[in-house]
Amino acid sequence: MATRRQLLGYSALTAAAAAGLATVGPRAAAANGAHVPAIVIGSGYGAAVSALRLGETGVQTLVLEMGRLWNEPGGDGKVFCNMTSPDERSMWFKRRTEAPLSTLLWLDVVNRDIDPYPGVLDRINYADMSVYVGRGVGGGSLVNGGMAVVPRRDYLAEVLPGLDADLMYDRYFPLAQAELQVNTIDPEFYRTTPYYRFSRVAAAQAEAAGLKTVFVPDVYDFDYMEREAAGTAEKSALDVEVMYGNNHGKMSLDKTYLASALATGNVTIAARHQVTAIELDADGNYVLTVEHRGDANELIESKRLTCRHLFLGAGSLGTTELLLRARETGALPDLDESVGAGWGPNGNVMTARANHAWNPTGLKQSTIPVMGIDDWDNPAARVFAELAPLPAGIETWISLYLAITDNPERGHFTYDADADRAVLNWSGEQSEPGVAAAKSLFDRINRKHGTSYRYDLFGDHRAFAADFCYHPLGGCVLGEATDAYGRLNGYERLYATDSSLIPGSLGVNPLVTITALAERNLEAILAADFA
Ligand code: FAE
Questions:
Q1: pTM of the full predicted structure?
Q2: Of the candidates 498, 496, 495, which has an alpha carbon nearest to the alpha carbon of residue 511?
Q3: What is the pLDDT of residues 433-460, one digit of tens each?
Q4: Domain Glucose-methanol-choline oxidoreductase N-terminal spans what residues (predicted)?
Q5: Is 160 in the pocket of ligand 1 (CB under 6 A)?
Q6: What's the rounded Cα separation, in Å, for the pair 405 and 350?
Q7: Known catalytic membership, residue 328
């Protein structure tokens, strides 16, 4: 249930979008030349936590987001398009959609030509790795599956040994889950609805092969989903909506943290505002070069905005690029030499199996995964694999999986001065440990059931796709490029607050951890740096 302050903040977002405004909240904060006490770059999980906690503490805060405000229906009455009929709203300035599954039976039937537009999903293509990210007020929360998994305590201690585990598990994870409105599917609905047949089939096969399956909580409102199934609410997850946005049901950040932040009265959100450079002036203020752009990507206004405290929440790629550029151009030369290092795709590997004719996976499929195979206790190959839907509108007999593997490889970013961008150094070989781990798990299932992989889904003849990821992590690692709370080494009042802090691997989907870590860090920062 939304709280009063969330309803208040969300209606401010909706009203601004309806009026065609890019800025929500006190407008002067985003005027060219303005000085504000705090600026937050980006509006994903880490950024949204920062905005709320700063606003609650009475700190005037400006949130700068390069993507759109997605709170106003288009000509078809919908804010977002679905995955089977993508239009320009689907992707960020592409001429053709770039979906993760690009073919079916080797046929080019998935992707569509689209007009370039600030659509909600971006795919950033490096040489041997592509990264999907959300663009818009709410960041990745607008496009993700909402799976809200708390990491294993032992693995979190391996990845980020400096964290106080008791505090994380007793205080910050429960706080993040409550604010994000995490809930769990009713097992009876799961067991009986045709929309989760795909998941029941895959779970039963995993269990028969001796593997453990677990329900996975989510930020999608499962009461709403039950009403979709009953025909009493407009369909969203049950109408092939997720990667290009959900029109209903999903508790994305614009309905939770960002709405609450706006309701404090101290927070301004400026959409289509991209930060391109960060400098420091003689008084120790951060000076930001910001481009306000329109739907055709035309420059509406170039701005200079200054602040005392600067929070980077532009995501693993966005935060790392801004910091690398600042260090390498000499704007912030004292940034740590480890900025750019410690990056990983959370061991993401996608694969699919072909089921026997007597085991259909269903015409109707919910887009929200609710179950995973948990084989993380297997010392030979630690894998947590979500049972993913493939809602094609036809029977495919496919079981699809996104496996999170314990791939120890790490990539790093370098600054390409000519292109003025950060380039990811990650080779195809570095994906191989993840593929080997995933293969060992799914080979077990195939052996048990006499089934095989599908080779027709990734545009070529591969059974495993590890050349794209949904979970970019690292680039500005906690305790390496920063102190124990995300303060950047070398500078004061400069913070990283997002997935860039987590060094490449987490063992589960990362949104709850990013949120909980930001809550932890902000509490310490507000107590010490804003006293
Ligand atoms: P993020 O949410 O990426 O937000 C960064 C924001 O900063 C974006 O809105 C950018 O547009 C904006 N930005 C970047 N550069 C600039 C700039 N220079 N100036 C202004 N704004 C800028 O950051 N995770 C889960 O836990 N469960 C899932 O089920 C799940 N499914 C996923 C499915 C898909 C298709 C994708 C793409 C991701 C999924 N994820 C999932 C990952 C999750 O969404 C991601 O880890 C978080 O969104 C990262 O949060 P951050 O706060 O780091």
A1: 0.98
A2: 498
A3: 999 999 999 999 999 999 999 999 999 9
A4: 134-157
A5: no
A6: 11
A7: no
Backbone Cα Rg of the chain = 22
Mean pLDDT over all residues of the chain? 97
- Please choose from 63, 66, 177 the residue to mutate so as to test ligand 1's pocket, defined by most ligand atoms within 8 A of CB: 66
Task: Judge residue 77's burial from the number of C-beta atoms within 10 Å of its C-beta, 0-12 exposed, 13-18 middle, 19 or more buried.
Answer: exposed
Picking from 454, 460, 495, 493, the residue whose alpha carbon sits closest to that of residue 478 is 495
- Kindly state if the Cβ of 315 falls inside 6 Å of ligand 1: yes
Residue holding tokens 């040994």? 161
Picking from 71-80, 148-157, 192-201, 208-217, which range would have the lowest pLDDT averaged per residue? 71-80
Handedness of CA 269, 273, 278, 283 (dihedral sign): negative
pLDDT digits (tens, 9 = 90+) for 353-378: 999 999 999 999 999 999 999 999 99
Cα(469) to centroid of ligand 1, in Å? Answer: 12
Q: Which atom of ligand 1 is nearest to the CA of 139?
A: 9
Residue 314 CB–ligand 1 contact under 6 Å = yes
Q: Which two tokens stand for residue 148?
A: 């809200």
Whether the per-residue pLDDT at 137 is higher than 80: the answer is yes
Among 39, 40, 45, which is best to mutate for testing ligand 1, by the most ligand atoms less than 8 A from CB? 45
d(CA 413, CA 434): 20
Q: Which of 386, 409, 480, 519 is catalytic?
A: 386
Q: How far apart are CA 481 and CA 314, in angstroms?
A: 16
Quick one: pLDDT band at residue 183, thresholds 50, 70, 90? very high
DSSP alpha helix (H) spans, 169-221: 173-180, 187-192, 197-208
pLDDT surpasses 90 at 260: yes
